[in-house]
Amino acid sequence: KPLQAVADRAQLRPGRFFHDRLRNEFLIAEAPEGRLVEVARARYALFGAAADVTVQGLVFEKYANPPQEGAVRGDGPNWRIEDCDFRLNSGAGVSVGPNGQVLRSRIHDNGQIGATADGTDILFEANEIFGNNRSGFDPSWDAGGIKVTVSQNVIFRNNNVHHNDGPGLWCDESCVNTTFEGNRVAYNSSAGIFFELSSKAVIRNNVLWQNNQAGASWYWGAEIQIAASEQALVHDNVLVVRESGRAIMLIDQNRWKVGGGFYKTRDNRVTDNEITFMGRGSAGGVSVSDPSAENFAIIERGGNLFDGNRYRTITGAPAPRFVWGTVEMDFANFRARGQEKQGSLTAGASVPH
Predict the structure, then answer these.
(1) N or C: at which end does the chain have fewer Cβ atoms within 10 angstroms?
(2) Is the pTM of this model over 0.90?
(3) What is the pLDDT of residues 271-299, one digit of tens each?
(4) pLDDT number for residue 282
(5) Domains of the chain (ranges, CATH numbers)
(6) From CA 91, how far away is CA 130, in angstroms rounded?
(7) What is the tens place of the pLDDT at every residue in 13-41?
(8) At residue 319, does pLDDT exceed 80?
(9) What is the 3-state secondary structure of the chain?
(10) Which phi-psi region, left, alpha or beta, contains residue 303 (left: φ > 0; alpha: ψ -120 to 50)?
């Protein structure tokens, strides 16, 4: 079991260690007799910019790699990772670049995050990603299951992503043409699927199950969360929303772009999803309330649409609340604002299995 690093001796206690760099000593607060004590020093198992690399059927564990970098770090094009196991590494389990593929692998119990990527034409398919961020990195920064940044034509397909401390699947900052399909994303501490500062996504045929286990505040931590992004098509997903959770949420906070202008939450379509609330919950779109902000009222005026979604509450649960712009309301008023003309809300559903 990995021990937690601490910044000074005073923080030592069972389950932690301190690296005294001046003396080059590792200190622990437990008697080591009868135990195997290991110290990782190597940063990477594989690292390079070579092209056309295939890695197959190997276990990669206990590397001292930095945050945001994989123990296997394939920066070059056309790295193909197949049927591997990435575990107990201090940063990410694996990271790939342009035309990178990670297939049928187990990526779990890594210190910061399961996997990262950036580039074009990237595929994550049929992997199991779980138990990542053992070291307690801030999930709002970079932690959890998988995070991809500054990329085009990314596909997340048929992955099982569960029990990570952070978002499950996360595409952040200038991701264009991203597809999330056929994934099961469950019991992660933050959002299930998170599309942020990006454009043009298809999110379809996924199962989202009781994410936001940490209970994020405001309207964060949705099963599917679209923040400061545009042209996302969200359809035919099955969601089970935990008590006080959020189903599908559009968020705009007037976020500034490097080089000028603002990211805009606009032209997003949320249709034909099946959503079950296990208790109190919410859905919709929320924006900043300052009338002087450039993006004020962009949720209402930006071409965003919810329609044809089927909302259900289990027996005894209250009706969900809906937010549109800066106003929270019931389902009837949500429809009165032009949303969910073909949608429905029913009570008394059985608990899903």
Answers:
(1) C
(2) yes
(3) 999 999 999 999 999 998 789 999 999 99
(4) 99
(5) 1-39 (no CATH), 43-349 (2.160.20.10)
(6) 14
(7) 999 999 998 999 999 999 988 889 999 98
(8) yes
(9) CCCEECCCHHHCCCCEEEEECCCCEEEECCCCCCCCCCCCCCCCCEEECCCCEEEECCEEECCCCCCCCEEEEECCCCEEEECCEEECCCCEEEEECCCCEEECCEEECCCCEEEEEEEEEEEEECCEEECCCCCCCCHHHHCEEEEEEEEEEEEEECCEEECCCCCCEEEECCCEEEEEECCEEECCCCCCEEEECCEEEEEECCEEECCCCCCCCCCCCEEEEEECCEEEEEECCEEEECCCEEEEEEEECCCECCCCCECCCECCEEECCEEEECCCEEEEEEECCCCCCCCCCHHHHCCCEEECCEEEEECCCCCCEEEEECEEECHHHHHHCCCCCCCEEEEEECCCC
(10) left
Q: Given this model, what pLDDT does residue 253 score?
A: 94
Residue 171 to residue 148: CA distance in whole angstroms: 5
